[in-house]
């Protein structure tokens, strides 16, 4: 069985300075070995923290006591300028009415209408790739391009191709800027001081906001609407019956583009890499893809592809794009026998949960059969949480899985992939990215 690249954890928790320095480069390298072996590990690095990678802790924090563990100060500090008050960061009443308003747009039934579009976009991307001829390529930009197109069509329906490309470039620039988390983010400094480093990202943010405004105005001005997410924003009413204001609408659009496209692209890129490493798995996906793609119409595709889904899930286990969820305790509590004080940081390292020694046999190996029906039947639901859990579980999970399945199957039905150097290294800053991309030899079949 294949053991793909993984991070070797430090034997002991790092000192404060080493943790801050290392965390800026790769958060995974700051997670000590004890976190992979114990229900909860605690310490103090500037503030008191607890790192809990056990199913029991996940269940407690994300489901049973969700209102006692709001999203973290650090996440707010990093994201606030653009997605403040959106469903992604809001709490309490302000969160609940937005979540309810958007839920319908992301129901699996509503989403299957998007399967033909996903198939179509993927085929076009493969054709463009085919025009380059066989050779070595970094597949990340290609996959991100497909994911961006799909998210933009599902969220705001059709857009001009050139407009979409320009918008994608802006968003990539924004995400690259965001990845440079400052050490200042870890301290409770006033806004003006702590995000001075953000200056470089400000023109990009302004340009993205202008683009969002144009999209909203066009739809309000009568440009053809549809059943997309933008429409659910326009139709949403708060508990007093008022429509959503422009700023909140823009924050939500931003949040969905932010949360929805890079994460999905990462899941897929890692899945494709794992298939390149393991020829047997690649052949099995290809076989399934060929028979299901031939036998199904595009809108029933999502119901097939069972093995491909297992491969996607195993990729999400080994390389969860949201590798770390962070909360602050709003009141004193106890988690897995450990005393938690109000204000403490509670880290939920999903990457470590997915490789926890008490939960998984040979946790670092690639084995899609872990997700076969017989092997998942008795599994604790809280040991595999790529999309979080509880009331704040990812709104786009079904869309992401559907996309990943269809794209992976379509790509492997037409192309053969083998790994090329350099070997990708998992690096968690905001999302879990492959450091220096994923390079594959790609050959049309
Ligand atoms: C593989 C792809 C994806 C992964 C791994 C992922 C992961 C996550 C995780 C872990 C959370 C919970 C964060 C927390 O509790 O702090 C989350 C929340 C969220 N995700 Fe995703 N996501 C993915 C795709 C998407 C897509 C495609 C969309 C939308 C189109 C989306 C929209 C959201 C939103 C709006 C939330 C906030 C929900 C709330 O707080 O009520 N995500 N996602």
Can you describe this structure?
- The chain has 445 residues and is of the alpha+beta class.
- It has a domain at 79-324 and 385-444: Cytochrome P450 (Cytochrome p450), CATH 1.10.630.10.
- It is built from 18 helices and eleven strands.
- A four-stranded mixed β-sheet has the order 1-2-7-4, covered by helices on one side. The chain has a three-stranded antiparallel β-sheet with strand order 3-11-8.
- Strand 5 (333-335) and strand 6 form a beta hairpin.
- The longest helix has 19 residues, at 202-220.
- It is globular.
- The structure holds protoporphyrin IX containing FE (HEM).
- Protoporphyrin IX containing FE (HEM) binds at residues 71, 87-88, 99, 151, 255-256, 259-260, 263-264, 267, 321-322, 325, 386-388, 392, 394-396, 399-400.
Which features would summarize this protein structure in a list?
single chain; 445 residues; alpha+beta; Cytochrome p450; four-stranded mixed beta sheet; three-stranded antiparallel beta sheet; 18 helices; binds protoporphyrin IX containing FE
Short description:
This protein has helices at about 15-25, 55-65, 75-85, 90-105, 110, 115-130, 140-155, 160-180, 190-195, 200-220, 230-235, 245-260, 260-275, 280-295, 305-320, 350-355, 375, 395-415; strands at about 40-45, 45-50, 135-140, 325-330, 335, 340, 345-350, 415-420, 425-430, 430-435, 440-445. The chain is α+β, with helices and mostly antiparallel strands and about 450 residues long.
